[in-house]
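Q: Given only this backbone (127 positions), what sequence would you predict?
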């Protein structure tokens, strides 16, 4: 009356298919984390390295909104520096090689930022 064997086999197959991406990423696709080249001529970023690694996209979005919608062009960093809210004037001033800095992490994480839809890509750093 009960098909316990078929039900257990079905659950096992279902779990196998659902967990396949997790197993694949854990075992097969475990590529080494990229080593990005940090600037040597500047001692401070607009925020700590940990904050920039985790949420630079939020900072850039906030800057974009402030500049485009409110006309605010400068900000004061947590360290007290006044900087221009500009990807190309502030960020790319230190991280000038897009291919070695930006693309290394973005390609590793398989993300496609929309920065270069509006901004001009720095010369000599095409992807």
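A: Predicted residues:
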């Amino acid at each position: 009356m009960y098909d316990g064997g078929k039900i257990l086999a079905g659950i096992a197959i279902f779990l196998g298919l659902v967990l396949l991406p997790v197993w694949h990423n854990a075992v097969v696709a475990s590529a080494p984390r990229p080593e990005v080249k940090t600037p040597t001529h500047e001692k401070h970023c607009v925020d700590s390295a940990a904050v920039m690694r985790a949420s630079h996209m939020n900072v850039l979005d906030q800057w974009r909104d402030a500049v485009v919608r409110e006309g605010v062009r400068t900000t004061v960093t947590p360290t007290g520096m006044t900087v221009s809210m500009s990807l190309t004037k502030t960020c790319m001033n230190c991280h000038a090689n897009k291919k070695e800095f930006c693309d290394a992490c973005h390609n590793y994480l398989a993300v496609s930022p929309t920065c270069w839809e509006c901004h001009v890509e720095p010369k000599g750093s095409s992807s």
